[in-house]
Specification:
The chain is α/β, with parallel strands linked by helices. The protein has helices at 2-6, 27-36, 47-50, 57-69, 100-105, 124-132, 147-154, 170-178, 187-201; strands at residues 17-19, 42-45, 73-76, 110-114, 134-138, 159-160. It is 39% helix and 11% strand.
């Protein structure tokens, strides 16, 4: 995939993100090379798999460095169904409010919240924090069952098409946008949800 991006074939469609583990001793070098030499457009974090908390000082430092480099940090609330996994506990899956500590720690960071599979319930303080922050949420999660309501709650600029492909069927995220009623989304808002919001978020 990187070769295709580098030779320009998919330059307008594929934006590579680097997966960085901040509790690995060489993470700063890896992050710098990924952005400066390899041209990565963002950072992906998987704390559940790499076994650290979002409040870990190294994680906070990584997010601050990403902010300073002008790249977003992507957090996936659910990678796969954890119930058949040998060492993941279903009760440990993230809800939307579990992301709040890192946004509180770096309120001027840039965050992608992907595959919202569990609760989006939020206390007023948390809702206010997300609405103020530079946050983009995609439509791939199983709990995006009322996209119109979520847009009304969080703001239309916070959402955009996401497929979680190849793990999920890409059509589901698109159908959630297509199924919005006219009173929930004008044609312009639908276009923003399909492409405009993410293009602005990524400064494309």
């Amino acid at each position: 995939m990187l070769r295709s991006v580098s030779n320009g074939r998919w330059k307008e469609r594929l934006l590579p993100f680097a997966v960085i583990n901040p509790i690995y001793s060489g993470w700063k070098r890896d992050m710098e090379e990924s952005i400066s030499k390899l041209g990565m457009k963002g950072i992906r974090l998987f704390p559940k798999y790499h076994r650290y908390e979002l409040t870990n000082p190294r994680c906070v430092e990584l997010v601050k460095r990403a902010r300073d480099r002008g790249v977003p940090v992507g957090l996936t609330l659910r990678m796969v169904d954890s119930r058949p996994s040998s060492w993941l506990d279903i009760t440990d899956e993230w809800t939307l409010k579990d992301i709040l500590p890192i946004i509180e720690a770096v309120p001027d960071g840039q965050f992608m919240i992907l595959n919202i599979a569990n609760s989006t319930a939020m206390e007023p303080e948390g809702l206010s924090l997300i609405k103020r922050a530079n946050v983009f949420m995609d439509t791939s999660g199983r709990n995006i069952i009322d996209l119109g309501g979520l847009i009304s709650t969080f703001g239309k600029e916070k959402f955009g098409f996401g497929s979680h492909s190849p793990i999920l069927d890409y059509r589901t995220g698109a159908l959630r946008i297509a199924a919005l009623r006219e009173e929930e989304a004008s044609p312009g808002i639908r276009q923003d949800l399909m492409s405009g919001n993410i293009m602005r978020f990524m400064r494309l």
